[in-house]
Amino acid sequence: MKKPSISTFALLLPTIFLLASTSVKAATQINVVGLFGGKAVVIVNNGKPQTLSTGQTSPEGVKLLSANSQKANFLVEGKQRALGLGQAANVASTNTQSNNPNAVTLYLNGAGHFESEGQINGKALKFMVDTGATSVAMNSGDAQYAGINYKLGQMTRVSTANGEVVAYRVSINNIKMGNLSLSDVDGMVLEGGSPPVVLFGMSALNRLSMKNDGSSMTLTKKY
Fold first, then answer.
1. Cβ distance 177 to 200 under 8 Å?
2. Per-residue pLDDT, 99
């Protein structure tokens, strides 16, 4: 068999280097070098050690979901990974959300809830999926922050874990979560500071299809 010439290897080298570079960029490497209650010290992609607190995301996109002295739960490239002290992982990118402009994928937090950052009327708020809520529900402070004059809505009373409170039925102009955008969504504003996050209830969920894979939930707009 004829051996390849030096010029042949020279032509192949750029291709080999390109493939190797693509492979590296397609995965995120994380090493756990310290663990504490609510914090983890990590090295991402062979960089410098950095300390993440629960809910914080590193510049490389590694989010700490929860941590104690035994292990930490991370969200890396759209996947959850539980790592102990001294453990490492290479997590390949999935890019699940970019394939569908009308879908968003949520992941379980440390408390077992599906949460996401989002917007109401252009104002950033945190959402939690709640199939037990008949409508999108928020506290009065969040409603004011989002520019909702809730007291113009129909007043009612609702039962909560803290007892019965005054609430107002409203129409929310726009809700955004990831790639999803919904307009004219029925909402409920509760006087006081509860719920602490916006409950993404059935008035929004009924307009979406839900696919639950255990640790992740994909919401896709139906209309």
1. yes
2. 55
Give how far the C-alpha of residue 125 lies from the chain's centroid of Cα atoms, to the nearest Å.
12
Tell me the per-residue pLDDT of 139-187, one tens digit each, with 9 for 90 and over.
999 999 999 999 999 999 988 777 889 999 999 999 998 889 999 999 9
Which residue in this structure is represented by tokens 């639950």? 212
What does pTM read for this prediction? 0.59
- What value does the mean pLDDT of the chain take? 83
Residue 23 C-beta-side C-alpha neighbours within 13 Å: 6
User: What would the two tokens of residue 152 be?
Assistant: 């113009």
3-class secondary structure for the chain? CCCCCHHHHHHHHHHHHHHHHHHHHCEEEEEEEEEECCEEEEEECCCCCEEEECCCECCCCCEEEEECCCEEEEEECCEEEEEECCCEEEEECCCCHHHCCCEEEEEECCCCCEEEEEEECCEEEEEEECCCCCCEEEEHHHHHHCCCCHHHCEEEEEEECCEEEEEEEEEEEEEEECCEEEEEEEEEEECCCCCCCEEECHHHHCCEEEEECCCEEEEEECC
